[in-house]
From TrEMBL:
This is VOC domain-containing protein. Residues 4-115 form the VOC domain. It comes from the Bacteria. Pfam families: Glyoxalase.
Amino acid sequence: MKLALVYTCLKVNDICSATQFLRDILGFEEDKFNLDVFDGGLVFTNGEHHKIVLVECAEEVQNPTILLLTNDCIRDYHSLLDKGIRFTKTPDYTDNGLIAEFLDPFGNCYCLLEERNYKLN
């Protein structure tokens, strides 16, 4: 059996600002096909690996780290820097690949991961 995570539920206190961040900064698009799946939530997709469900929540909630897969961490790091994103962790090599971390305006942590296989055959 192969399992994969497709949706991440992101609770925010300002759904309009969160929508702008996902759309204008991260390049996600509203997923019109799944609007009725999540009652009261908006679904966004990056067209590849991930869908984020935005749900408005009055109280402050600690969301899990959101993992965004990329094929070029350095390129995306600089692109997001140009858009005003402040990184909490600059690109660094780990056992899983090249990783950089940043926060959205709500304090949610995002991790850019360019997966790499360092094992020798």
